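User: Show me a protein chain along with its predicted structure.
Assistant: Here is one chain, sequence first, then structure tokens.
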Amino acid sequence: MARYLALRDLRLQGGVPTRPKLKIINTNESTPLNQVFTQIKAVSAPGKIHSMFILCHGFAESNEAAQLSIDAGGMGLQIGRENLLHQNVDKWKAIRNKVDNIVVYACAAADTQPGNEFTEADGRYLMGALAIHTNSAVYAADKIQWYSTYNELKNGCYDFGAWEGQLWAFPPDGSPPTKVFGAPVDFSDVISGIAP
């Protein structure tokens, strides 16, 4: 069983090198989420994955309530064919109790602009729902994330650097999120080989 899992959407330019204790699942615009869930369950058998890193684009660009075009987010994640959206987050129950921590490396996944509360642009609500449905602690930031690549792989290996904006922790019991300084394990620690 792998301790860590990188769930990577290929629309995010860059790559993930092979590492001990790390399993990689790639998705694209034609990969059904049910197929992804089956793979996650296979990786977690017979126990649980410590941390799953979701590496993808976040849907971001506007604050519809304020009628502004800004670096706002919270509208979902570009992962697999169906994406992770407010209207389908309940599908993630398929991996309930399979992962302890989900760390989201995507733009403004936890962003909720004033006026967007309880709308399809409420990222904190979406990340909280993901935590509840998977029974996992979810970690996501509220600003556009920047990353670079370095040449370990043909198309470059991800280097996410420090979190932009505020990182939030969403508990699986549905209680309010809290501001945190880091995830239980950073993706860079797994790649560098220093993660436990």
